[in-house]
Amino acid sequence: MSAMQQLTAQGRQIESDSFAIIDQEVAHMGGHPFTPGQWNVVRRAIHTTGDFEFKELFQFSQDAVEAGVQALRRGCNIISDVTMITAGVSPVRSERFGVTCQCFISHPQVIERAREQGITRAIESMRFARDQGLLDGAIVGVGNAPTALFEVLRMVEAGEAKPALIIGIPVGFVRADESKDALVAQSGVPYIASVGRKGGSPLVVSTLHALMVEAAQ
Asked: Is the pLDDT of residue 44 over 90?
């Protein structure tokens, strides 16, 4: 059994049946505009949430899936804004590519600096990752904190960091949608986003797993 086939035969059948149902229902809705690689990301998001609206919300830069696949194959760092993402990413699949998923939101130095400056820990955690040299060539996944996404975009514009891919799917009512609008408006870094208020860490995890399946092919 490969690292990408951890499910039992019964589990694989359930997943396969679920994907088939999603494909059928989306076909009845008129289909979708995505490439096969993009659709694997969106379909897994629908599978994760049971919400077909995500086929209207996901947006990709033209080269996003390929950028993520190539980064994984290089054994990139994955930097997240919350530990829910590091906990959710399959360690077996990560090991398959030699990738490391890290989050610094609870690092003592991050907490201290954030308190001193009166900013969110999410902002400081991204600055900490930058200072450790971990953002260049990395996949950055933001599933909770719009402030983290805004900070990474500021770094990119300022030439302070050059991630391989940004997955921006923060959730909430305070600037979550604005942060994702800013992500899709920029052209400096490939991106995968789900616009609007909906989002969350499980969708970043499902996106990473979809990219890992693509990278294994």
From this structure: yes
Helix axes 146-158, 121-131, angle to 10 degrees: 40
3 state DSSP class of 77: strand
Query: Which pairs from 102-110 meet CB under 8 Å and 24+ separation?
Result: 102/77, 102/78, 102/129, 102/134, 103/79, 104/128, 104/129, 105/81
Judged against a pLDDT cut of 90, whether residue 125 lies above it is answered with: yes
C-alpha distance from residue 134 to each of 60, 122, 128, 181 (Å): 23, 15, 9, 25
* DSSP state, residue 134: -
Nearest to 86 by CA among 183, 212, 208: 208
Half-sphere exposure of 54 (CA within 13 A, CB side): 26
* Residue pair 92/211 in contact by the 8 Å Cβ criterion: no
Q: What is the average pLDDT across 123-145?
A: 97
- pTM beyond 0.90: the answer is yes
Q: Give the HSE-up count for residue 144: Cα atoms under 13 Å, Cβ half-sphere.
A: 17
Average per-residue pLDDT for the chain: 94
Q: With pLDDT > 90 as the criterion, what percentage of the chain qualifies?
A: 89
Is 107 noted as a catalytic residue in this protein?
Answer: no
CB atoms within 10 A of CB 118: 6
Query: What is the model's pLDDT at position 15?
Result: 85
Three-class SS state of 35: coil
Of 28, 47, 107, 209, the active-site residue reads: 47
